[in-house]
Design a protein that fits this description.
By secondary structure, the chain is of the alpha+beta class. Helices cover about 30% and strands about 15% of the residues. It contains five helices and four strands, in the order H-E-H-E-E-H-E-H-H. The protein has helices spanning about 10-15, 40-50, 90-95, 115-120, 130-140; strands spanning about 20-25, 55-60, 75-80, 110-115. It has a four-stranded antiparallel sheet, with helices on both faces. The two termini are about 20 Å apart.
């Protein structure tokens, strides 16, 4: 049975906190319709680093949108580390991904923060049957 991949806003609501996730960019000359995240070198290196440092992660989607319709998975990773500058795992992750001034070390990815306050704007998505009803109404 295929595993469902949650949207980052749903993860934030479930964790009841701000959350972190990683987005990976296509190569500039990549004109394919779908992003081949499985062969993304940076993504694979980051996954190895996360595993070596025993930092939990799992696939996620971006923010859910009622207007966007169905989305395909693009290799985003939720990182199960709180956004807390005093947290040791956050310090390790930040040092790996960012320069001391906060700029990214790697230009082929984004280290993203998603606030719980923004996630709560979509809390109605968690109501039983919400997506089924929307899909039916939209004829998807």
């Amino acid at each position: 049975m295929p595993q469902l991949i949650d949207y980052i806003d749903k993860i934030a609501r479930e964790k009841n906190r701000d959350v972190l996730y990683l987005l990976f960019k296509r190569k500039k000359n990549d004109r394919s319709f779908f992003f081949d995240y499985q062969s993304c070198k940076r993504r694979n290196l980051v996954i190895k680093w996360l595993e070596k440092n025993q930092i939990h992660y799992y696939p996620c989607m971006g923010e859910a949108s009622e207007e966007a319709g169905l989305d395909s998975y693009n290799g985003f990773l939720y990182v199960d580390v709180p956004y807390d500058v005093d947290n040791e795992d956050f310090k390790k992750l930040s040092a790996y991904l960012e320069h001391p001034d906060g700029t990214m070390r790697y230009d082929d990815m984004i280290f993203a923060y998603f606030p719980l306050e923004q996630a709560m704007k979509n809390k109605h998505h968690d109501e039983p049957g919400f997506w089924d009803k929307l899909f039916e109404e939209q004829g998807w």
